[in-house]
Design goal:
8 helices, 72% helix, mainly alpha, de novo design (two linked rop proteins)
Length: 204
């Protein structure tokens, strides 16, 4: 009985400390959410590029081509998630988001491979420009994912810093998930520059 009476003030003290700023700051949480918001925004921009690639490929590929269907399916999976920065609070949903985006990367990659096998399309300046834009998008995505991971890891480290570990049992705070698998570029061949076409475009 006496031990229970002594423990109660300790618990109240821990709770008070946690409520007075010893718990991870709202600023740190905001940084994680802001970083993930950037990830979502850049991936959303890539959806536009995927639409452009699909529209261009439809002129050269059969309507029933599996690569076109894979793009549509990947887009549907992404849209079904309705991703927001709150995803960082739900590890399972975060994993679904990551998997869906990497599936889109693979779908775009396969479409690029097929398009490169169609000579008229492969030599199209519009297609080569699209390749460069996709490569640039992939670099931005990789950088945004890295920034998010850095913010999440800093937040997670703060959760387990003394005296936070003493108050852990009183808080629902949990580690923010991180990207465990890199998202590669959908463009594996460096786009070539057709200098003949370039010279022609520069003529007045």
């Amino acid at each position: 009985m006496m031990k229970a009476i002594l423990i109660i003030p300790v618990l109240f003290a821990l709770h008070a400390l946690a409520g007075c700023g010893i718990a991870p700051s709202l600023h740190a949480d905001d940084q994680v959410r802001a970083a993930f918001s950037d990830v979502i925004a850049i991936y959303d921009e890539r959806l536009g590029l995927a639409d452009e690639a699909t529209a261009l490929a439809r002129h050269y590929l059969p309507a029933e081509a599996s690569t076109l269907k894979d793009i549509v399916d990947a887009r549907s999976a992404i849209e079904a998630l309705h991703a927001t920065p709150a995803v960082v609070d739900e590890p399972a949903l975060f994993e679904r988001f990551d998997v869906a985006q990497r599936q889109m990367t693979e779908a775009i990659s396969q479409l690029m491979v097929v398009c490169e096998s169609v000579r008229r399309l492969d030599t199209s300046p519009r297609f080569r420009t699209l390749q460069m834009r996709l490569a640039a998008s992939a670099a931005r995505i990789a950088a945004a994912r890295e920034r998010y991971d850095d913010a999440a890891l800093q937040y997670n480290a703060s959760l387990h810093r003394f005296p936070l570990d003493l108050a852990e049992a009183l808080h629902a705070d949990q580690d923010k998930p991180t990207f465990s698998t890199p998202d590669s570029s959908p463009v594996h061949r460096r786009p070539r520059t057709d200098f003949g076409t370039l010279r022609g475009s520069l003529r007045v």
